[in-house]
């Protein structure tokens, strides 16, 4: 196994299209040591599907970032609510927070949410007219999940766009100062929101969440960190899920036409859309707490380990002809929501929001097309998530 000489996940070409890079790395070895940044540090990148599933469930791969960086110098200044949330912890702390988060997104709870999600989509698309141009990202894919999660957290409507902007900054891979500043703005805002709700009795969604946190044994900091995770992870990946799915369908007109002719096929198509262009390209940070072996490769203790669902979902060993969008494929084994104890608890909500949004688009504007060439689209410059900065569409109804 020959390790790359430069970080392959920082190449500008990677952000535009990561899949050739993932293919090249996986063909060399599905578990590779790669350089990270410019400081001479290394990490292990996992691009194979069976290796990724194995790594997701290996308890020797810790998500406790505070433990990893405890004796390492760092110039980062993330707010504790961002740096020590459920995604950055191991059991039992992780178990305690997940026990509170999971019931928020059960199938039954999401079923109750569907009428509200539908109303939000209707409101967002009220002004859309056939023959006009819209930016699907700015006008639907961002505000839909932001509105849903902010409703859950009791965030006033006047603050929602600001919070969405801070969340966007949090994923800026090119400016760590901007990321740190955004983390403090989000953390401080949610701390104030939680403290105010505790001091003001009520029966709103946030008060219900706070009661769940109290019953689950979460302290003030854990409650704020859970709220931050729900806000950031609860909308950022759903935004990219919707944008990536619409782009994939428009670039595969035969698939778009099938859903247009039979929108009831949309729920069954979601797994393949998630597999084809995962909103999570590289999963959040893990590190090895002891020597282990994954995919026949030895990983020493003390190294960061990066699991790439975007690569695993295009592994031909798991999905034949993986670069083809096939709505008849059984793609239920995709890893876009993760796997194991850290699998995204909000997956049912994300699926419902994407399904309702796609159904509205294909039924109201069934002949919609890209307003610019696909090659001119720009992507977020972060290896963690994969999503468009904008998606200009020309809306067209029935011809």
From TrEMBL:
Keywords: Heme, Iron, Metal-binding, Monooxygenase, Oxidoreductase. It holds the Pfam family p450. It comes from the Bacteria. The keyword Metal-binding applies. The lineage of its organism: Bacteria, Bacillati, Actinomycetota, Actinomycetes, Kitasatosporales. It comes from Streptomyces caledonius. Belongs to the cytochrome P450 family. This is Cytochrome P450.
């Amino acid at each position: 196994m020959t390790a790359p000489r430069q970080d392959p996940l920082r190449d500008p070409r990677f952000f535009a299209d990561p899949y050739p890079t993932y293919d090249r790395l996986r063909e060399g070895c599905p578990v590779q040591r790669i350089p990270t940044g410019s400081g001479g540090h290394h990490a292990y990148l996992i691009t194979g599907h069976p290796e990724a599933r194995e790594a997701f469930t290996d308890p020797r791969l810790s998500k406790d970032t505070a433990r990893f960086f405890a004796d390492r110098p760092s110039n980062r200044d993330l707010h504790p609510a961002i740096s020590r949330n459920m995604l950055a912890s191991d059991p039992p702390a992780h178990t305690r927070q997940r026990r509170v988060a999971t019931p928020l997104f059960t199938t039954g709870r999401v079923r109750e949410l569907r009428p509200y999600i539908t109303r939000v989509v209707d409101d967002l698309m009220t002004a859309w007219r056939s023959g006009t141009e819209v930016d699907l990202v700015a006008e639907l894919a961002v505000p839909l999940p932001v509105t849903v999660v902010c409703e859950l957290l009791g965030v006033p409507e006047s603050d929602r766009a600001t919070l969405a902007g801070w969340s966007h900054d949090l994923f800026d891979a090119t400016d760590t100062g901007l990321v740190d500043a955004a983390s403090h703005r989000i953390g401080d805002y949610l701390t104030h929101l939680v403290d105010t709700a505790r001091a003001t009795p009520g029966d709103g969604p946030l008060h219900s969440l706070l009661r769940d946190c109290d019953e689950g044994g979460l302290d003030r900091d854990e409650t704020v960190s859970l709220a931050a995770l729900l806000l950031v992870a609860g909308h950022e990946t759903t935004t990219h899920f919707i944008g990536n799915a619409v782009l994939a369908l428009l670039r595969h007109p035969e698939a778009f036409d099938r859903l247009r002719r039979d929108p009831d096929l949309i729920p069954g198509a979601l797994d393949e859309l998630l597999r084809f262009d995962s909103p999570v390209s590289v999963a959040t940070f893990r590190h090895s707490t002891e020597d282990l072996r994954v995919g026949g490769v030895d990983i020493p203790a003390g190294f960061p380990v990066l699991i790439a669902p975007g690569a695993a979902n295009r592994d031909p060993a798991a999905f034949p002809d993986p670069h083809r969008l096939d709505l008849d494929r059984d793609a239920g084994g995709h890893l876009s929501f993760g796997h194991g104890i850290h699998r995204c608890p909000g997956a049912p909500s994300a699926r419902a929001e994407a399904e309702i949004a796609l159904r509205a688009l294909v039924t109201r504007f069934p002949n919609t097309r890209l307003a610019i060439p696909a090659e001119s689209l720009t992507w977020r410059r972060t290896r963690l998530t994969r999503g468009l900065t904008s998606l200009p569409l020309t809306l067209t109804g029935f011809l």
